[in-house]
From TrEMBL:
<dbReference type="InterPro" id="IPR013730">
    <property type="entry name" value="Fyv7/TAP26"/>
</dbReference>
<feature type="compositionally biased region" description="Basic and acidic residues">
    <location>
        <begin position="118"/>
        <end position="130"/>
    </location>
</feature>
<comment type="similarity">
    <text>Belongs to the FYV7 family.</text>
</comment>
<feature type="compositionally biased region" description="Basic and acidic residues">
    <location>
        <begin position="67"/>
        <end position="79"/>
    </location>
</feature>
<feature type="region of interest" description="Disordered">
    <location>
        <begin position="118"/>
        <end position="141"/>
    </location>
</feature>
<feature type="region of interest" description="Disordered">
    <location>
        <begin position="45"/>
        <end position="79"/>
    </location>
</feature>
<dbReference type="Pfam" id="PF08524">
    <property type="entry name" value="rRNA_processing"/>
</dbReference>
<protein>
    <recommendedName>
        <fullName>rRNA-processing protein FYV7</fullName>
    </recommendedName>
</protein>
Amino acid sequence: MPPKKSLNAKKFTREYKLKEIQRNLTRKSRLKKQYLKALKEEGYAIPQNTESDEHLDGKNTATAKLTGRDRKVIKRQNSELKYEEKKKLKQERLYKKRQDREFKREKELNRIKEIKSKHQTKIDRREKLAQRTKTGQPLMGPRIEDLLNKIKNDDTYTN
């Protein structure tokens, strides 16, 4: 009995790949033609051809028949452009991240400064209210002044 040949062995040949590509292109163009025909029959507007449509139709074969060297050059140029774009995007992300970090830091510093100032006013107020006479009696002047300030700052009395 002869050894069985692999059925998939022909899939790796250049001729098979070319036939497969051609078959796919003709299938896509046939499907596109049927789609446009159905659109026309149903009364819809037929869309304008785009570059990808021209490639499917086979009209734009000049780009499909580039030599290997030309394809390498084009690929290298595209990769360099993509590298530059990626580098630029990375720098923009870093800049934005740095700006966000600075904004959060300033916000936190302002919050801490506000807390410190409130704490200091609280301490000052407590010291004023804790003042005593020589005999140990509380001074009424600072207390009355504090009450007047509260009334001035309160919105219910200033209408």
